[in-house]
Amino acid sequence: MNQDHKKKVTIEGLMRFKRMEQPAPEFWRSFDKELRAKQLAAIVEKRPWWSSLVSPFTYMRRHPATLGAAAALTISLVSYKYIHFSGIQGHGLNTAQSEAVAELAADTPKTSHQENVQAIEIAHPQASSIAQVGYKTSKTVAEVQDKRFQSTGFRTEFSDIDSPSARSIAANLAAARASQPEMISHLLGLESHLVSVTNADYTSEPLERVASPSEERRARLLATSLPSASHADARLGSSGIERTLSSLSEDRLYQSIRRYDVGGEKISMKVKF
Amino acid sequence: MLDAVKVPSKTLVASPERLQEADQDSVIVKQVQAGDVAAFDRLIIKYRERLYGVIYHMTSNREDASDLTQDAFIKAFQAINRFQGQASFFTWIYRIAINSTLSHLRKNKFKSFLSLDTVNSEEPVSQELISALTDKTGADRDTFVHELQEKLNEAMQKLSIKHRTVITLFEIDGLSHQEIAEVMDCSVGTVRSRLHYAKQLLQAEMKAYIS
After folding, report:
1. Whether B192 contacts B181, CB under 8 Å
2. Cα–Cα distance for residue pair A6/A132, rounded to 1 Å
């Protein structure tokens, strides 16, 4: 190597020399052909299964602020809904439990006791009035319970549905009724129903308001031995029934039954003058 | 006066030529995104030689360079709808190419071999350097050139991948420190440091040719 020339060579000069390494012009023809084939293959190529999963993440990475705001809004809405709903649902569950008690107190005796009373009435007309008192007592509990629900506005037409969603709908509807009764009643066309609900003399069965002459007679007979039983007449209002409930103890009721001495197919009654 | 609004937010490129290029590329990219697939060919023709050159000098293998350049274009074509213009197309496709090449080099760290393109010794730059290094003529001169080329590529391959990339982009492709920093996703200081270290290593390897 020429030492004089060598002094002029630098690393930058060598790199410029390296830049002169270039492919022949025909190389680009084959390059273009191969690239075209690859490009077509890429267009036709079936996309991998995970590409659909990747695209949302790509969008998320591209719009972090928008997604963050949307996520925050969603979380706040859900949490608000959850807190609000859980409060109502807690109340709604208690209401549902109370309603279940009321239904048990009203409906179960209605089926079993009413049948029993009818059976006794056929065999022993006097004793059946005692059974009627027992039945009415349980029914009165249900009615009182019902009225309490009506006053708080939690008695709805969904109360006989046991599913949690139905209970929650009922609770929400009741809450809405409590806050805006006019609008809800107008929207749902339940105005007449609400009027009947707010009526103080509420009874579930209209026929039960009508007392038969036999019941009046039995009530008169019982009045001497069981004074409070005379107040248990079906014609009396709820206040009378409530008084009966408060004054009628179980011991006294059993004593009254013993006085009639019901047994087998006969009945004996002790009468004092 | 340059229209600052048209400058992509992340692009550090400041030269007017580069800005004009970025604008032109942006128009073509929008055409491709609108469904004009043939418009992508203009981008290929515009950048294929530069991309190939960078990849070739990093790999010192023309077949690998060809494949990697094609792959870079295919990747860019497939992802063109995700290109939002935050960086210039030039920077974007360079990143794709560099990342593909780095990945390839890492995978084939111990399997690399030289497959060199012919040096265009008729160019004034080549002639000047060759005449500075030797007085040989004819076949001897060609042998000398071939030997020098091999030595130079071997020296390049002795550099780490990152140092090789920096010196290729700066000395061969002519990118600025800022552009290299943007393409390699590192600071300008890191680029300068790597460049300095790479030059020192190359000088040590090529000391037989450098005074």
Report:
1. no
2. 128
- Topology given in CATH for the domain delimited by B13-111: Rna Polymerase Sigma Factor; Chain: A (1.10.1740)
Closest in A12, A18, A62 to B152, CB measured: A18
**CB-closest option in B74, B119, B120 to A38:** B74
Distance in angstroms between the alpha carbons of the first and the last residue of chain A: 154
Q: Please, which residues have CB within 8 angstroms of residue A62's CB and are 6 or more apart in sequence? A: B82, B84
Average pLDDT, chain A: 65
Tens digits of residue pLDDT in B196-207:
999 999 999 998
Q: Does A23 touch chain B (CB under 8 A)?
A: yes
Cβ-contact B172, B57 below 8 angstroms: yes
B54 contact A CB<8A: no
The residue ranges of every structural domain in chain B are 13-111, 123-211
Top pLDDT among A14 and A88 is at: A14
CA dihedral B31, B32, B34, B37 (to 10 degrees): 120
Residues of A in contact with B129 (CB under 8 A): 9, 13-14, 16-17
CA distance A73 to chain B (A): 27
Q: Output the pLDDT for position A48.
A: 65
pLDDT tens-digit readout, A136-180:
544 555 565 555 545 544 444 444 555 777 788 888 888 877 877
Contact (Cβ atoms closer than 8 angstroms) between residue A222 and residue A256 = yes
User: Closest Cα of chain A to B132: distance in Å?
Assistant: 4
* Most trustworthy range by pLDDT among A203-217, A229-243, B21-35: B21-35
User: Which residues sit opposite B202 in a β-bridge?
Assistant: none
Closest C-alpha to B49, from B26, B67, B69: B69
The DSSP secondary structure of B37-101, one letter per residue, reads TTHHHHHHHHHHHHHHHHHHHHH-BHHHHHHHHHHHHHHHHHTGGG--SSS-HHHHHHHHHHHHH
Fold held by B123-211: Arc Repressor Mutant, subunit A (1.10.10)
- Look at residue A120 in the predicted model and tell me its pLDDT: 46
The tokens describing A150, both together, are: 């009506």
Q: Determine the Cα–Cα distance for residues A63 and A215; give it in Å rounded to an integer.
A: 79
Does A59 reach chain B within 8 Å, measured CB to CB?
Answer: no
The backbone torsions φ and ψ at residue A79, rounded to the nearest 5 degrees and listed phi first, read -65, -40
With CA atoms as reference, the chain A residue closest to B134 would be A1
- Nearest partner of B90 among B101, B102, B98, B82, judged by Cα: B98
Q: Say yes or no to pLDDT of B135 above 50.
A: yes
pLDDT (0 to 100) of residue A179: 79
